[in-house]
TrEMBL record:
Residue ranges of the region described as Disordered: 71-98
Domain Large ribosomal subunit protein uL6 alpha-beta: 141-219
Protein name: 50S ribosomal protein L6
One MF annotation (Gene Ontology) recorded for this entry: rRNA binding
Amino acid sequence: MLRLARIRPKCVDPALTRASHVGSSPIAIPPDLSLSLTDHSAVQISGPRGQTSVPLPAFVRLSLSPYVASPNASGTPYRTSSSGLSTPNSPPNAPPAQVLEISVQNPDEKEQRAAWGLTRALVANAVTGVSRGFTVELNLVGVGYRVALEKDPTTGGERLSLKLGFAHWIHVPIPSGITAQVPHSTRIVLGSNDKHQLGQFAADIRAFRKPEPYKGKGIFVGGETIKLKDVKKK
């Protein structure tokens, strides 16, 4: 008779299973940044590129402590975003002055665990935005596709004029808080302190000509690639 061995579950600390890997990760604060709480409902972040405010849920707690370099640490303590949509500029050579840690009152509650990592990501993006900023590159691929940066006659600001294979030009006003450069007639470089606003504006431009899989034409954001399909033959 075959006997099945009873497998005992491993004893795991409940506190470890409830911790957020993203939310519990500390944020390096550069020396030229300052943080302040406004009525415990938002954190005000000021830096060389401006200032911004991030709203905080009532159950989120912030802890700011001096940065202590580890003797075994190597490389830079600043993280670089792996997102192809918005890439932060090069980190400074100076080590961070402080470290910001984010926690919640009760990690066992689902709502607090969900907002833990989200709040940490928003604060980290704000710190990167006011200290280094974000940039994103758009490439126009197609016969006759081109772009020009010109003055907007209606608002007095700047706008992008796109030629994307239509019978008319497409004029896109550049919103406040975003800078645009056109180093080449088929290349656009956008910059901003707000990662969300920058990504949304890049997505709006991409929507005019999404990359198509047969000829590979369209507007490509960042390092975006597309797999070409074979044309159906009769």
